[in-house]
Amino acid sequence: MRKILHSDANAFYASVECALDPSLKEKAMAVCGSTENRHGIVLAKSELAKRAGVKTGMANWEAKRLCPNLVTVPPHHEIYAEYSRALHRLYERYTEYVEPFGLDECWLDVTDCRRPATEIAEKIRTAVKEELGITVSVGVSFNKVFAKLGSDMKKPDAVTVITPENYRECVWKLPCSDLLYCGRATTEKLARFGVKTIGELAAFPHNLMQKYFGKNGDTLWRFANGLDDAPVARYDDIEQAKSLGRGITCVADLENGEEVNAVLVALAQDIGRRLRAAGLEARGVCVTVRDNALAFVSWQQQLTEPTQSAATLAKAGEKIFAERYKWSRKVRAVTLSAINLESADTPRQISLFGGDTQEKYKKAEEALDKIKARFGDGAIKPAVLLCDNKMPEDLTDKEK
Description:
It is built from 14 helices and twelve strands. It has helices spanning 12-20, 47-51, 60-66, 77-91, 117-132, 144-153, 167-171, 184-192, 198-203, 206-224, 257-278, 310-324, 357-375, 393-396; strands spanning 4-9, 29-32, 42-45, 71-73, 98-100, 105-109, 136-141, 159-161, 243-254, 280-291, 296-307, 331-343.
């Protein structure tokens, strides 16, 4: 029998902020987007804030109304990523089979470990608390789906075991929506058949699940009946990401190409830095625009050569937008994505006519990375970002 763990960091963003500033531990606190911006929502909340009714995804003003003494802090995504890497390194002490599921969740296959799975789960729970100052809830089971359900059952800082003997008692009473990959539309459709719990889903005729829900119906039926046999992938074997992007909702609607270009430059700075950190290059660029009527449109274009350069990405994005957007409405939100990613170590042909432009960009931007690492993100930036614009402060670093 397999021994699978699912470790889920409790209120990850909020817990990291409390680890960095212990004075927050005794307060109702939440990690939020800027209150001054239209995208200001609760990204994570502490246990005290949760008890006051604060929920993830809630608008900042609504959270403050429910919890007047709520302390809000801005997100620090780079720090969260470092904590995530630290969690992975800790998990790898026990097994090489560590499969991330977002920043704060991982599956571990400890089948080959001599120690009991529950003992390993307890050691992980204790080590995370002592070494990183945050907590995890760990599910222990014989497959990935039930291990994940287990990590959700007791929070925070707990271990839950689901076995072949007790899963009917533990799992079947839960709502279908708790099952992995059972989204809102599927949950609503199941309810129309009178299927509301995982147990009712497990008892639903297999052939009808396939008939009415297709391949996903077969998958969900197998999950509900404890038949998930998906392996836990090794971290190094996980398929490389095909795209990397960043988007923002602006403080006010953008009215012309110059304002949009400033946003694209700011987004490209972040994407270029992340590409260099990951050792990746992009062979294409995608621009997605949402207008003030909330309609989306997206375009993409291949690049003449792979790049990590923020300047190249921004110029490509500006060209795409200028050629394709018709300005029937003002722009509310913009997303820039680097697509068709490949390793920066991939051999490529250098031009025989002139210097290697991308290599020059790379050296210049790596020098900028070093300056920012030493003096802060606001130490140096494109001049366009020093002007008054409609971007949120967490993208322009105006306060610095």
